[in-house]
């Protein structure tokens, strides 16, 4: 967790001004850093949070608190960032 982020579904996370967003394989910022934490994309969606923080546990940390929502690979909010937790996403199309 101390090195560069890996690509998941052609996107990788970045941090800017203590917020997180996503860049593509050409290193172009595609989703602005507007979130306190973002999960890597899985099945075209990412679980995001605002108001959350890192709780350190030795050399690793976990994310605690905040409100959670879901975005797609274009940054469109699919589930508003207003829930206490979201464990997984299964959006039926």
Please describe the structure with a list of short key phrases separated by commas or semicolons.
93 residues, mainly beta, four-stranded antiparallel β-sheet, three-stranded antiparallel β-sheet
Put simply, the count of helices is 0
Alpha-beta classification? mainly beta
- The total of beta strands comes to 9
Major sheet: 4 strands, antiparallel
CA-based gyration radius: 13 Å
The CA-CA distance between the termini, in Å, is 33 Å
| Oligomeric state of shown chains | single chain
Shape: globular
Integer average pLDDT: 92
N-to-C SSE string, H for helix and E for strand? EEEEEEEEE
Strand percentage lies at over 45%
The percent range for helix content is under 10%
The strand line-up of the biggest sheet is: 4-5-8-9
List the helices and strands and how they pair.
Blueprint: E1 11-16, E2 19-24, E3 29-35, E4 37-38, E5 45-50, E6 53-57, E7 60-64, E8 67-72, E9 77-83
Antiparallel strand pairs: 1-2, 2-3, 4-5, 5-8, 6-7, 8-9
Please describe what this structure looks like.
There is one protein chain. The chain is built from no helices and 9 strands. By secondary structure, the protein is an all-beta fold. The strands form 3 sheets. Strands 4-5-8-9 form a 4-stranded antiparallel beta sheet, with no helix packed on it. Strands 1-2-3 form a 3-stranded antiparallel beta sheet, with no helix packed on it. The chain is globular, with a radius of gyration of 13 Å. The model has no long low-confidence stretch (mean pLDDT 92).
């Amino acid at each position: 967790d101390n090195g560069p982020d890996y690509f998941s579904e052609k996107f990788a996370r970045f941090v800017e001004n203590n917020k997180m967003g996503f860049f593509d394989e050409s290193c172009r910022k595609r989703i602005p850093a507007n979130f306190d934490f973002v999960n890597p994309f899985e099945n075209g969606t990412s679980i995001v949070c605002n108001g959350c923080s890192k709780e350190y546990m030795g050399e690793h940390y976990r994310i605690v608190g905040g409100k959670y929502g879901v975005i797609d690979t274009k940054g469109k909010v699919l589930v508003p960032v207003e829930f206490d937790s979201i464990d997984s996403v299964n959006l039926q199309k």
